[in-house]
Design a protein that fits this description.
The chain contains 9 helices and no strands. Helix 1 crosses helix 2, helix 1 crosses helix 4 and helix 4 runs parallel beside helix 7. The chain is mostly helical and 187 residues long. The radius of gyration is 18 Å and the shape is elongated. It has one domain: Tetracycline Repressor, domain 2 (Orthogonal Bundle), CATH 1.10.357.10. This is TetR family transcriptional regulator. Pfam families: TetR_C_13, TetR_N. One of its GO terms (molecular function) is DNA binding.
């Protein structure tokens, strides 16, 4: 089997795993469903991943990278440091309006485990840390007083908006969070 075909099969497995986990959760995404949906054999999955846990972590790691890239790209389209801080919420508003919005994959999946040392929880924590660091970078670029504290506040607004949009079906959650951020930042 050539490397291109191998990478394509692996990518298909990861894409399908990510979509199913995001839609149904980890526990409800069994290997039979993965095999059927991906159109690959169980043997193919185990060729690339030792077990379901390893597959889930790889899929979530990939989602983390893609989601952070998407957010950065959306925010960086905006001119001005203050507007970039608020553009985070504009990006969220767009995401919330998408047909496949199911909330934060990392909040959702970490809620499936009670162990703070579980690899899924640790990956969720790392994702939130990256998000915090990006918001901190935006706060520092804007020159906000006490940027770490402001970034921590904005992270709560971001995750709160995501949760309210999902749980309450509130299409105005991002706009409400943006208004609160504007007040918090004095913009």
């Amino acid at each position: 089997m050539n490397d291109s075909l191998r990478n394509d099969t692996r990518d298909i497995i990861l894409d399908v795993t990510e979509k199913l986990i995001y839609r149904h959760g980890i526990a409800a995404t069994g290997m039979d469903l993965l095999v059927k949906t991906a159109g690959v054999s169980r043997k193919s999955i185990y060729r690339y991943f030792a077990n379901k846990d390893e597959l889930v972590i790889a899929a979530l790691h990939r989602r983390d990278e893609r989601w952070m890239h998407w957010l950065r790209t959306e925010v960086e389209r905006t001119e001005g440091s203050g507007e970039r801080l608020l553009a985070v919420f504009s990006a969220l508003e767009t995401w919330f309006g998408s047909a496949d919005f199911r909330g934060c994959a990392f909040i959702n999946t970490s809620g499936e485990t009670g162990d703070p040392q579980d690899p899924v929880r640790l990956l969720a924590k790392a994702h939130k840390q990256k998000l915090f660091e990006y918001v901190l970078e935006l706060c520092e670029a804007h020159g906000t007083p006490d940027p770490e504290r402001q970034a921590a506040h904005l992270l709560i607004l971001i995750d709160g908006a995501i949760t309210v949009a999902l749980v309450m079906g509130d299409s105005t959650a991002a706009d409400n969070a943006r208004c609160m951020a504007r007040t918090l930042l004095g913009l």
